[in-house]
């Protein structure tokens, strides 16, 4: 946190406090989840959880672009990658669908917080222009696709580097498993909102996961391959930009 100014620290702290109180105020007992599918209380809770990540993401993106202007092109391309992949949806279950996320690339190059900002921008455009997802479920969709998934990608990618796993294999594993984790989180979100009359949340989650799996597993593999191919392309045509991101120094 020493790299952030007092103002930036204040904004981040305020977002954390707001997130905490909103979550505490709403009874939480009560991949794009469609508009109106979640109870209002759940919409507020998931949105509040996302808030600190988004604030930190805006700060990080601003710093990255100011310090390394050349990386703006890769940042925009990462956002476009998310938009294209997550727009290709395959119907999976009432209230949701299966699709790739595309957020693994941004998580590897820019980190989790920056990925959350790119993800929510894409989700807003999709909700308004494509009727894919929804504005009321924006928080839940942002958390599953643009926060939870990228966290897994980021952790696995860095663990792979420490274990000296082949770089391309490492990227594939991280991106593919990050995609799958997104759907595990979505299943949990739906199960909490609609627990099974017999078996509760656990049984409901198993049912949602069973419906997602046949389409999501192959999609996760495809996303892992595409992420590797994009990285190979960047290594060939955007060396200067990757150097400014310290990509080569970290791999």
TrEMBL record:
Protein name: Cobalt transport protein CbiM
Subunit structure: Forms an energy-coupling factor (ECF) transporter complex composed of an ATP-binding protein (A component, CbiO), a transmembrane protein (T component, CbiQ) and 2 possible substrate-capture proteins (S components, CbiM and CbiN) of unknown stoichimetry.
Organism per entry: Peptostreptococcus russellii
GO MF, one annotated term: cobalt ion transmembrane transporter activity
Keyword vocabulary terms for this entry: Cell membrane, Cobalamin biosynthesis, Cobalt, Cobalt transport, Ion transport, Membrane, Signal, Transmembrane, Transmembrane helix, Transport
Transmembrane region(s): 12-30, 37-59, 71-90, 102-129, 135-157, 169-192, 212-234
Annotated family: Belongs to the CbiM family.
UniProt membrane topology term: Multi-pass membrane protein
Keyword field contains Ubl conjugation: no
Localization per record: Cell inner membrane; Cell membrane
